[in-house]
Protein: Serine acetyltransferase
Amino acid sequence: MDKDQLNDIVAGIAKNYSEREEIFFTDPNKHFPNKLAIVNIVKDLRRVMFPRYFGDETPTGINPEYFIGETLIRIEDSLRRELREALLFRGGLATEELDARVDQICATFFSRLPEIQRILLTDVQAAFDGDPAAQSKEEIIFSYPGFFAIFVYRIAHELYVQDVPLIPRIMSEYAHGRTGVDINSGATIGEYFFIDHATGVVIGETTTIGNHVKVYQGVTLGALSTRAGQALSGVKRHPTIEDDVTIYSNASVLGGETVIGEGSIIAGSAFVISSVPAGSRVSLKNQEVNVRTPNKDHAKCWEI
Amino acid sequence: MDKDQLNDIVAGIAKNYSEREEIFFTDPNKHFPNKLAIVNIVKDLRRVMFPRYFGDETPTGINPEYFIGETLIRIEDSLRRELREALLFRGGLATEELDARVDQICATFFSRLPEIQRILLTDVQAAFDGDPAAQSKEEIIFSYPGFFAIFVYRIAHELYVQDVPLIPRIMSEYAHGRTGVDINSGATIGEYFFIDHATGVVIGETTTIGNHVKVYQGVTLGALSTRAGQALSGVKRHPTIEDDVTIYSNASVLGGETVIGEGSIIAGSAFVISSVPAGSRVSLKNQEVNVRTPNKDHAKCWEI
Amino acid sequence: MDKDQLNDIVAGIAKNYSEREEIFFTDPNKHFPNKLAIVNIVKDLRRVMFPRYFGDETPTGINPEYFIGETLIRIEDSLRRELREALLFRGGLATEELDARVDQICATFFSRLPEIQRILLTDVQAAFDGDPAAQSKEEIIFSYPGFFAIFVYRIAHELYVQDVPLIPRIMSEYAHGRTGVDINSGATIGEYFFIDHATGVVIGETTTIGNHVKVYQGVTLGALSTRAGQALSGVKRHPTIEDDVTIYSNASVLGGETVIGEGSIIAGSAFVISSVPAGSRVSLKNQEVNVRTPNKDHAKCWEI
Amino acid sequence: MDKDQLNDIVAGIAKNYSEREEIFFTDPNKHFPNKLAIVNIVKDLRRVMFPRYFGDETPTGINPEYFIGETLIRIEDSLRRELREALLFRGGLATEELDARVDQICATFFSRLPEIQRILLTDVQAAFDGDPAAQSKEEIIFSYPGFFAIFVYRIAHELYVQDVPLIPRIMSEYAHGRTGVDINSGATIGEYFFIDHATGVVIGETTTIGNHVKVYQGVTLGALSTRAGQALSGVKRHPTIEDDVTIYSNASVLGGETVIGEGSIIAGSAFVISSVPAGSRVSLKNQEVNVRTPNKDHAKCWEI
Amino acid sequence: MDKDQLNDIVAGIAKNYSEREEIFFTDPNKHFPNKLAIVNIVKDLRRVMFPRYFGDETPTGINPEYFIGETLIRIEDSLRRELREALLFRGGLATEELDARVDQICATFFSRLPEIQRILLTDVQAAFDGDPAAQSKEEIIFSYPGFFAIFVYRIAHELYVQDVPLIPRIMSEYAHGRTGVDINSGATIGEYFFIDHATGVVIGETTTIGNHVKVYQGVTLGALSTRAGQALSGVKRHPTIEDDVTIYSNASVLGGETVIGEGSIIAGSAFVISSVPAGSRVSLKNQEVNVRTPNKDHAKCWEI
Amino acid sequence: MDKDQLNDIVAGIAKNYSEREEIFFTDPNKHFPNKLAIVNIVKDLRRVMFPRYFGDETPTGINPEYFIGETLIRIEDSLRRELREALLFRGGLATEELDARVDQICATFFSRLPEIQRILLTDVQAAFDGDPAAQSKEEIIFSYPGFFAIFVYRIAHELYVQDVPLIPRIMSEYAHGRTGVDINSGATIGEYFFIDHATGVVIGETTTIGNHVKVYQGVTLGALSTRAGQALSGVKRHPTIEDDVTIYSNASVLGGETVIGEGSIIAGSAFVISSVPAGSRVSLKNQEVNVRTPNKDHAKCWEI
Structure:
């Protein structure tokens, strides 16, 4: 670029800044929460809940209360800072209200941790029962991406139900980026939940899932498409999955009024947009099988 | 390993080196472009386009031209170095031609940035209209992986159309690795494009997509399989998607002559290898639903 | 949190520790292998096999044996340490047995490297023949996630067949996290294997795959669901894919007795749970196509 | 440690916390400025002043104003944050006063930069004239620790004269740690100043130095010892060095009333605690030289 | 280098390896302690002793016992590992003895921490009384290199007195590298010790220092030179400094029988190799001052 | 800053750029060698020479030639790049000359390594004989800063004698920054050289030092001051120290014609600017000792 061309491009981009508030929001008090800080909160919570699995400094048995207490104090310190940024970003709170909200969110959030830890152990049990390839429960906690995604969901959900903006989204997208599993923090998910192989699973904001449900990779529990945008915000748009349902790989179950009855099995690639009763087996119709002589000439074009 | 065994293995690998040019190309002037440098170019372009979203040092409003100009100069400096490596890797250019090509690529590329920035705002709008769970446009820019994949595609595409080797691929695979979305930089994609949930989407090199198209996770816009390899290079092998089409999760649309007519809707898991007219709804045939008593004994083997 | 509330939460978590061995295993001699060390072993093996592709310090042609030998010595040093941790974690070996096992695993593992390198070149060839968008074989080695996943599988498999615990899993999940491809290290996979676009592919532990097989993104070669857990450990639960088969995007082939005969083609989204003979084309039945007037009013709700 | 012993030690340290405010100051609004941020301010200022010497992204000649402007905006953003912390740490300012103080400090500080840059070039010239081993002026800017220490002093001094707490100290100690040169930011130092070899030089808070002064390693311009502490705060306790003085290695010049007259030369190891007139040569008295037979038996004890 | 030359050099170096045990000690069970781990132990101890000064995560006042306890557990875990390496490196201990020694060292070391913390506060007080430039005690703790060197000495000394090999040396050299102060961990130093400006101070292994002593930069408390090497190991070779002594910059006090009597003052650059009684002022003899006309022609050669 | 003020400051600095070539040298082909790369060359050479001391991956005894060879190839690769930059920075070489010079420098430099390694072992021996506090030769290699400074000097000197610009300086300043020892790479230093405690030692460019010389911290072997600058470049300006000399702390020996005869001993703080014969003991004259009553009131001002 020569100097004139550079200046033209700069002017073009600066013009976009000045015309579009989305690009360059000018309120100096709005900042996004810090993604790295939130990721570290997630990691520290994981170390508190499964203390000898992650991180170099594994606590010994001398006095684990020191470890738990010190880590929670540090997490709270960091979480408070990010909560404040997130609430300021959305706006509409006076300073005193802000502090009170942060206090209340933290108190409720941290008091839930022992119970979340208990529920996560039911998820470990479900994975151990559901996957013969797992050699131990420790292996599941240590390395299963589906379990990691559920862990992050269960944390993020506790903030979602307290109407915290942005932070649950950042947590979900962190898990999404690492595992390919996109569970909206608004979903309601029961105990003994198992996601096998993980990649490509999508679970929408208003989904309800019972106990002992198992889904495979690529499963979508989603909404019917809309371009009405925000008009549907808050409406139940995603399905209800009752207890003991199994959904195979790449199946899609869509719609807020769709209920998959207790104990049903949904075949892979199924596309379900209406309810089915308890005990259903949903499968695709008659696949055709045509036999012809196998083509072994690899240099030729293969078509279906 | 003892010393003899080690020496044998070393000899075996060294033999492979000497016999196979793919493993150990001996031309000392061939180097791959630097992946990290290219990733940083992508990140810096993102900061120029959405300046208060990413990175610690957010520009104030004092004089944003300084920020834009300085960042572009730095990007150009880095891009020039990588362009040179990429063109040298492919070979076939005299030194003076090389410099002229780099000049021309940069001049064209940077002059497109304000327009790309404008188009990206249409993509933000499409996501905002299409996802009731989005609380603001800012949240989309800040955290939606589908939007990130489109952003990287729009950048990489500008280099692809100028016949730059390797760098568009590195950019695409960077986005692919982070989001699970594999958009070949050769695809042609209109405005107001929205990829919801993102993971598993594949869009092939010769795909053409109109305006206001929406695709869900797991959608493939691909080619029919070939083992003819390079003979098909440059031929249109991927489909054409007209305006206002919606494609649900895990559907596949394949083939260079396949056209999905304007306003069509493709159901999840559909496998489409021939054209459909405007206004089509393509769905899977009659799924079977068999009801039986739900099996609540979790210790038993469940079969479909 | 005030001091009382904090102490209550700490006590609750500490109680979970003391009651559940999965959370806080108290055997001081059990440690997980180090994930980062194992990732570095994978990266170093990649540098030995494809020496001018990855890492700053590319060997010159002066004396590549030094490079190979030194890198292998370093890898062995690191691998031995992790093998020891992994075997100790599972337990049941006396100290002398442990050393002998580590010696034997290393000797066998390293002696396989030249052959693995040779097979990987057949995979590169398959990708080059199968993807017209690939501009060179170098581009495949350098940037194709499917090839990376196969590379990691072929390494991890050599440890799996020697009954090494945990480390093959860590390797597989590393590749899984980066590429969205989950190949269990227990699978048996022939030469000239190509995974196109990669994201969402799952290949189970007891899968057998022949030569010249090609699978697309989202393909599952899996098991039928079970909740019987460890009772099925070691049983063949995943399908057999014979030579020259092509499987399109998002198809699922499940079950230990399912055999896809030589030269077959499986359409996208197919859900196959029983065997098909050689030369089969498996596709979904009659998709319905209903045409209606395209709805161009983007503000309205679109339904399928 | 067993649990009892640990708890005793913890209690002992906690008791120290509660009794000594220096250890654990309880005011939650007091934080130290961030050392790393301040080090980065120093580095960024160095890049603005000597733009092609430090850092990867060297500006090209296209439009250096963009580089300067953008870097200064970023520095100001960071400096404001640290100034606020430093002023809050000292306390005593109302919120509005705080903002006004920060505004004023920044306005004055940044307006001084072009002049500081000019003076630093006189220091480069002095080093070039004074050191035959310097191959170029660029080598001095790029690698001389004495020049680096002077650079940091000249920056820190501008904050000291505006009564900024803590930050000038952090800057000085950063230079001290890297070069072994401890120049208190309160000192007043003229143009064409050269510190050769650098290590061990100490220049106290109330020192005054003229133009064209040269000091060698180990030189102290200090105070006479006191244990009266803060009673002497603000009093001139360090010497005055007039123009054109040279001070050799390890000499000490002490005391607030000590003046080294113009053009004087102080010998190495001299210990000067009273004034000397212009043109003095200060040296140590008659060193004794006793000759004896050299002892070549290295195994024996050597004494002086 | 061509291949022959390379191979010759390699052979030359390998020959040195095989001939000189210092270069390449072949005992596979000897490893040096890890320098980084030891540096982190020092840093963590500093955070325990001065908890709101260093590190991002400053404990709040809720329950500092959690912070202290958890940090000490982590430090002990790390210190045990390094103690084991250091003792193995020296050799001569059976395995059970090793464990018992490590237990004992840790128990004694940690029980000393509250007392060390108390003594360090006397050093802070001495610095505050002795340096009018210090604006607060906090500034001394936060940023004075002399205080940092004393802190590290007081920690390392506790390990020295328990005959721990290598680790005290690594700690001392860490402080030496950062501050230019080389205090051998074997020295015995009383309370209220102040090192002003720090750089260049050397305090030898068998030095004894009383209370309320103040030394300036460049002061050596050393030994007379020997080439008798290890024959003098353990003999008192360094001086004794009684209470209330002040030693000015660059003075050297040498010899194991040299005693500086209570309340003495040693002038800068003094070289003292025999004892002086209490209340002495030791200074250099009559410095000559010769006056001549100052030479203002900077282009001329200046001589002393 | 407001916009106007910012623009003024930017203009002021830009004006300095345009007027002073030192600040902003405009030749686009001049770049400084990369400091980090050069530091890594030093570290890698240290690992080759003392292979089990530094770095995680210590070679086993299987085949150390692989380790040596591979490390040397990598060092040469990196050194060649930096040599090229350094020679281009000075300018005056045609491209072919440049390559020939780099070849020749490398060939000579690497062939010297086995001999340098041998000489370094004499330095280790001298330290072991000279310091009763050293517990082993390994401890000296592993942790003595004086030995590190000599190591770097011996490397840098080999480049200096081949007239390599800038790189020897960068090496020296790296050692200087870490140890406080500034040995100009041009100095000529014999075998069995020992620098005890290290901080503050300066050894000038044209110094000549014999065998078995020992210097203490703070010793200067320097030049008489000049402001004639480059006119003296290349002239011998620093002293000659013959065999078996010992120089105590903070002594200065200056001048190109000054010769310290064999076996001499120079007392601490001595300032020597003329030659002394073999066997001299140089000491300071009659120090005065005045005794008075020690002042124990620490609150009073103490004066010398």
About this structure: The two ends of chain E are 49 Å apart (CA to CA). Residues 64-90 of chain E form the longest helix (27 residues).
